[in-house]
């Protein structure tokens, strides 16, 4: 495909509420900031959807030829149990509960998060920590204090009426109860939406994480860190700011207000604001406190490869709600297995060539059009299927086409093997020999056309976490 055939990249900007052609601020470069995790606990797979989305965006920008600078920050201070300024500091609360230091907790959960990123084949990025930017946050606070803030007993607050069109990014929160729960009024605040730039440590108390400031000992507000870090690391304005849709309602409007205040109201800090929709459970929004805590590790413990979860995310559009179910995950895993089986029939040791063959033009154009259409990964996957199943085509070129597509989708198809996908469920008790015996019994039953027996054996093996794929000439068996 020549560069003229390539489509412009169109992305949905939550701020203008419409799709826009991506036009970088700096020629040939794309600068992206993604709000990272609050490292007081494990991330659930819903959180990880936000990073699969951000990674797909980053990979797409690389594919379109931009030199990418992408940051995912680590929130290791300042995030309260509610996004508005209510409740306790998440880090300090966990520290008290666990008897560990807030610093140790942050280091532990950051490492766990980074491990999950790697398992989801999310490209390695810089993960700067908020606690390393507190001085810069204090400076920022000093710069905006006089014109945009007021001090009261609990801290320095941002007056949201001092910037034009505060909150224009947010949609009405559909769930009234939730909306009310999130923005409670604090007696001291002038306006309901005002938020803390600095939170003072209450008199007579000592926080584990606290710093001196012109407004007393305390800690920065959570919203401030992303304004400061994005400016320090990417410069303002930069190209794209991402996060989950909950951030569209409070956190990002507050970042924008701070950026406007600091930059004399000229810009919101980023040119585009992009938000992934939620991963939900049938019962509603995924949470760390209620129901089963769905961590990536739990999926692996049940015998799923982590990239099956990535596949599940890619099958949906990032702006659509995605419902998690074990069946959906199984279906995504099966799709991944089939792809890997097809890949094993291609010699992956040869050097991939540029896919110039005419037969490859259609699927490559389909892929380009899909991914440029606001990251339509589900259609992009069908273009991948088209290429992988293509027959009578030069292997090097076919491999080259797959590599281009997979560099964006990130399913690691150039390396993944069937052995990698055989994950022993944590509580599997069956031995390799027992599996072999059942497989040969099943083969015999099939040869005798005794399908009831063969199906029963298959179900029995499935219950033990062993999946059989009959379409596979090599046989998909279990290996311990
Ligand atoms: P947090 O650690 O709470 O700051 O969340 C990390 C990221 O996950 C943020 O971008 C959130 O918007 C996003 N997020 C939280 N819950 C979900 C969910 N159920 N589905 C998708 N993204 C989510
Ligand atoms: Zn943020």
Radius of gyration: 25 Å
In terms of DSSP E residues, the strand content is 5-15%
How many beta-strand runs?
A: 13
The structure class reads: alpha/beta
- What's the SSE pattern? EEEHEHHHEEHEEHEHHEEEHHEHHHHHHH
Number of helical regions: 17
Q: What is the percent of helical residues?
A: 40-55%
**Distinct bound molecules:** adenosine monophosphate, zinc ion
Shape: globular
C-alpha end-to-end distance? 44 Å
Poorly predicted tracts of residues: 173-182
Strand order in the largest sheet: 4-3-9-10
Query: How can the largest sheet be summarized?
Result: 4 strands, parallel
Assembly form of the protein = single chain
Average per-residue pLDDT, rounded, comes to: 90
Please explain how this structure is put together:
- It contains 17 helices and 13 strands.
- It has helices at residues 45-63, 90-98, 102-119, 134-148, 176-182, 222-234, 246-249, 251-262, 296-301, 306-314, 326-343, 358-372, 377-388, 395-409, 418-421, 432-447, 451-463; strands spanning 10-13, 18-21, 29-34, 67-72, 149-152, 155-158, 195-200, 218-220, 238-244, 270-276, 279-281, 284-285, 322-323.
- The two termini are 44 Å apart.
- The model is unreliable at 173-182 (pLDDT under 50).
- Bound molecules: adenosine monophosphate (AMP) and zinc ion (ZN).
- Adenosine monophosphate is lined by residues 35, 37-38, 46-47, 49-50, 243-244, 246-247, 276, 278-279, 285-286.
Descriptive labels:
4-stranded antiparallel sheet, 4-stranded parallel sheet, 17 helices, globular, 13 strands, binds zinc ion, binds adenosine monophosphate, alpha/beta, 480 residues
